[in-house]
Amino acid sequence: MRYFIGNWKMFGVPKSVNILNKINSYYSRDKNRNKYRVVITPPYTLIESYSRYFKNKRILIGSQNCYQKEQFSSNTAAISPYMLKSVGAKYTLVGHSDNRGEGDTDLMLKDKVRYALNNNLKVVFCIGENKIEKKNKKTLSVLTRQLTKVLEKKFNRNNIIVAYEPIWSIGTGKIPTAHELKKTTIHIKKVLKRIFKKTSPAVLYGGSVDGSNIEMFKEIKEIDGFLIGGASKTSKKFIDIIKNYYR
Ligand code: PGA
């Protein structure tokens, strides 16, 4: 199974559903549709209405984050995994670099993953090195640390997906070389196998993915799909990625 996950970040109002409608109608007719899954993570404000709208359609709706407590608590503006599940979210991102940058620690991320899984959300756990770490050749050790500090053998690995997003690549148009990316992805899968003592969960790539560079990414068979920011906000750009992936 391949994944094309669109992360809208701070984008979208109710009528933006038109973008998803177009993606959904392409998806529903695509002869390759059973080979992949499309998940979109709109902002919190749209999760309930979009989940209801796409309930019997193909696109799945997820959240971009969740709070590190399970159900209800007195944390102003916080949204728990239980609350997300109750309005129809099927997935949640955890640990996006935007949120790590705003203070999410490994300890918080571990609780987010745990409580999201407890509430039957599938977790897309994001990891990635920054520019300086890459320059200092610390990429693999940073990724190992990010994975081992948060993921545990007792977590249900069938509901976990890992997204490798080098921070220097997000929204910049810069991407790793095919050689680098293959090596990094193999490393991530090796670490995951060690953590879970079983085969690795799916590993996605994210960072400036678009309809033209997907040709390069699709050659790397170890990559199970993509987390797509900028190019998920336009139906044509998102559909082009899927089209060119299966061409
Ligand atoms: P981008 O964002 O595709 O715009 O680089 C990816 C992400 O942050 O998930």
Keywords:
10 helices; 16% strand; 8 strands; 8-stranded parallel barrel; binds 2-phosphoglycolic acid; alpha/beta; 247 residues; 40% helix; TIM Barrel; globular
Describe this structure in words.
- It is a single chain.
- The chain is an alpha/beta fold.
- It has one domain (2-245): Alpha-Beta Barrel (TIM Barrel).
- The chain has 10 helices and 8 strands.
- It has an 8-stranded parallel beta barrel, surrounded by 4 helices.
- Strand 7 (203-206), helix 9 and strand 8 form a beta-alpha-beta unit.
- Helix 1 (17-29) packs parallel to helix 10 and helix 7 packs parallel to helix 8.
- The two termini are 17 Å apart.
- The mean pLDDT is 98.
- The structure holds 2-phosphoglycolic acid.
- 2-phosphoglycolic acid (PGA) is lined by residues 7, 165, 170-171, 206-209, 227-231.
**Sheet with the most strands: spatial strand order:** 1-2-3-4-5-6-7-8
Average predicted confidence as pLDDT: 98
Q: How many DSSP helices?
A: 10
Distance between the termini: 17 Å
Task: Give me the CATH fold name.
Answer: TIM Barrel
- What is the CATH superfamily classification? Aldolase class I
Q: Tell me the structural class.
A: alpha/beta
List how many beta strands DSSP finds.
8
Q: What string, H for helix and E for strand, traces the elements in order?
A: EHEHEHEHHEHHEHEHEH
Query: Would you identify the CATH architecture?
Result: Alpha-Beta Barrel
Domains, number: 1
Low-confidence blocks of residues = none
What is the CATH class name?
A: Alpha Beta
Q: For the CA atoms, what is the radius of gyration?
A: 17 Å
Helix content: 25-40%
CA-based shape: globular
Major beta sheet, specifics?
8 strands, parallel, barrel
